[in-house]
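User: what does the whole thing look like in 3D?
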Amino acid sequence: LAKTTQPISMDSYEGQEVNITCSHNNIATNDYITWYQQFPSQGPRFIIQGYKTKVTNEVASLFIPADRKSSTLSLPRVSLSDTAVYYCLAPGGATNKLIFGTGTLLAVQP
Amino acid sequence: EPEVTQTPSHQVTQMGQEVILRCVPISNHLYFYWYRQILGQKVEFLVSFYNNEISEKSEIFDDQFSVERPDGSNFTLKIRSTKLEDSAMYFCASSERTGGTEQFFGPGTRLTVL
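Assistant: Here's the predicted 3D structure for the full assembly of 224 residues, as structure tokens:
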């Protein structure tokens, strides 16, 4: 499983776009880049997943360069309710387990 | 929208007692998981379960832990003799497929061992 590295914390203001970058230098061919969100005392929630280029859904966009050694989660126009921990993972292959790091604590201020 | 449910939401027990944490995964999912999160720490994988048997487990999942799917809907985690360090949030999750597909997490059970 690829090891991922992301900033410990980020601050933002309501209405801003937030970009959280994750590095995964040893990502394998079978690995997908996946982001989860976790609010305090709740289970993680899947946000978005991609393999390469750009993926967009109703919540976020995920940008993955051609070498796949990094990825960027983009949250458009954040609100206070987006304050949470965001985890970058690279699951795939034969294993089902998710390996969570410490994630990025995003604090959105008014 | 279908969701994973867990009971109880909070369990308090004495050290050495057995506890059973219960989960109802999403009905058409085939893969089931338990994770735990000690307060202030990372979410840690415990075990994955498919086709009525454990498919993968972590070093945390020792002989004190067991999982079972007693019927077509429930998935349980049993801790035989709880220790203080078992105090944590325990999350159940399920997925349709394997290989990194989206896992749906339940709200968790907060286990407090006194």
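In plain terms: Chain A has a mean pLDDT of 93. Strands of chain A lie at 9-13, 18-23, 33-38, 45-50, 53-56, 61-64, 70-75, 84-89, 104-109.
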